[in-house]
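Hey all, sorry for the wall of text incoming. These are the two entities for the joint prediction.
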Amino acid sequence: MSASAPAPSSAHEALAIRITDLDKWYGDFHVLKHINLTVAKGERIVVCGPSGSGKSTLIRCINRLEMHQKGTIVVNGTELTDNLKNIDQVRSNVGMVFQHFNLFPHLTVLDNCTLAPIWVRKQPKAQAEQLAMQYLERVRIADQAHKYPGQLSGGQQQRVAIARALCMTPSIMLFDEPTSALDPEMVKEVLDTMIMLAREGMTMLCVTHEMGFARAVADRVIFMDQGEIVEENTPDAFFESPKNERSRQFLSQILDR
Amino acid sequence: MAAIAWLRIHLFSSALNSMLTILIVAGLAWVLPGIFSWLIWDAVWGAKLPAACEAARGEGACWSVVWAKIRFMMFGTYPFGEQWRSGATIFVLTGLIVVSAIRWFWSRWLVAIWIVGIALAFWLMGGGLGLTPVKAEQWGGLPVTLILAIFGIGFAFPLGILLALGRRSQLPVIRAFSVIYIEAIRGVPLITVLFMASVMFALFMPEGMRIEQLLRAQIAIILFIAAYMAEAVRGGLQAVPRGQYEAAEALGLSYWRAMGLIILPQALKISIPPIVNIFISVFKDTSLVVIIGIYDFAYAVKKSVETDIAWRNYIVEAFLFSILIYWVYCFAMSKYSQWLEGQLARGERR
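and here's what came out:
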């Protein structure tokens, strides 16, 4: 834990993520403006908003794929600073699923899943493989374990990516538009996997526009526009009677499609 | 019938194409018989005396020069009675290349095999432990070429990877060092680096400390190739998508693990063609060490004929022989790299 953490942050606090007064710039461009967000353990949050609103940047700050310039981010009681040990600790507890899967093409599905447990968690190979098969089973793709990612469909690849993240037994999962690069007929298999995960009590932050998913599992919907959190609401209230003008506009656009 | 159809499509598809085909075939028919009769049919083969070659002069090549001079060509000025050791070194070093090429050996074992191979080669060449010592000044011929090329490649490869990573590093000092090193080395000819190594090392070294000429040339070659290798590897690094770096980071892999397990395996695969290109040119460029007085294979071949009045008219044949040896090694590398690319691409194809 960092000595510079301003607020008391103990390991057993009930918050999974606490973001306070977060600001981030790309050069002169102010991508994230004064973000405040807390996520309780076991909570499922859907983040949506038009493209360029900063929603991906926000969740990428949580495992420090992006650096923030102002404010604090505390994940499971560990503050994200330049301290590499803290970053490693956070990353090994936070799983991430990317829009473009980012599986390792030179490794088999099974090796994709066991790589981090073996090299980061120092698990014995046999144990890591057993665990990996268990998770591959859960995302219903165990029969493809010995294939290479390039031999799988997009939906299968994304399910492998989810299993790969789960193999590190994370306490928080981040999803960065997990279904936007998929062909329409494959969206459901990935969403079903995510819904299953949500039902098991995983803390989840999902950047997605899938309303069905949001309604099925989200505790809260966060709407972002131009780097700000514009609205926080329950899914039903957000989709039926959004409070904010910009939310309304955005919803009318995605519903028209 | 299939053959006729093939001919029609490929060689006689139009009037112009037919004309070109006939012209080229006629040209070959005019040139090739002369070349082949000089090279093969009218050539003097086997261990014959110079007089036999004299009789065939202008008609056929004199391959007897190779029979007469093979030991000097292959081993240079290495003590005559000990030349079996040079021969054994050629086998050990060629074996090292072959083993490194087999995927089955691609593990930690390869490092051990290399250490054993290097030790064996130097023991055989240098002597000691029961073998008569032979000073490096007396080494020569193909073993010297192989030593310079193989150790040049073997050490420059990891060094080049480090420089490539350094050039893309976030740390300004490391990045600046890598950039300056690569650009400085790439800006000068190998021949001047060899000269510097030969002359300048002595000036910088403390009194009494002398490094063998061969070792100086070796160090110069390693430092030189590393710069080119770095740029070839960097090309591969840039071709690996950003998402791969991010996925490795997100899983909590450290920088070196991410590079070693995720990024480099992909980057090096992409860089195989330029890397092998460098290997091949290094193999041939080792012949430049002649300017600092090292008896490599090409120089030994030249000297072997020049120093003997009886055979000095047959230097062309001697050079053709050395070309054949260089070609066999280089062509093997080239073919191997093509095979390897196919192998590595196999599993990942849909």
